[in-house]
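User: Okay, second chain of the day. Same drill as before: sequence in, structure tokens out.
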Amino acid sequence: MPEDHDWEAYKVPPTRTPVSERTTSVPNPVNYFQAAFNYVVDAPVTFVREWIERLQNRNKFYYYHQKFRRVPDLSECTEGDYLCYYEAEAQWRRDRMVDQEIVEIVRERLAACKQREGPNQFQNCAKEMELLAQVTKAFQDRYGDLGFHGNAWKCLMKQKHRMMEERKAAQEEQQ
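Assistant: Same drill. Structure tokens below.
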């Protein structure tokens, strides 16, 4: 390609901004104001912001999951330790909400599979149906028949009675 362009063949559109010609030897005060603003305000703020960003990049913290430490179960609390009772109750409520969400997610997966498969749902969604049956049975075993006012103590007593019945059934089976 030649170095010199044919300006007649490829015309450059005229610029709309007029070229300013300096006719005075007095410096422009705006340039001094911009430089002073840059050194006094902008540079320190930029330095502090970059320093904070470097610290944040070192210690990543994600806000979308709140992690609770596991507390002792109600059966592990000593008698009269009301703070332990309260923490165990709060832990039980969180566990129940998580288990409810697990059941709901499995139920939604089964509904999506049924919607996707149509008439072949009984063949193609058998694994999802089995999983839903297992999850709902486990949820019912743990939280069923507790009612609206169920708490950690009632759940622990239900578990104790179920274990006693299983032990009694095992002894009768051996005899």
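Residues 28-62 form one domain.

User: Thanks, on to the next one.
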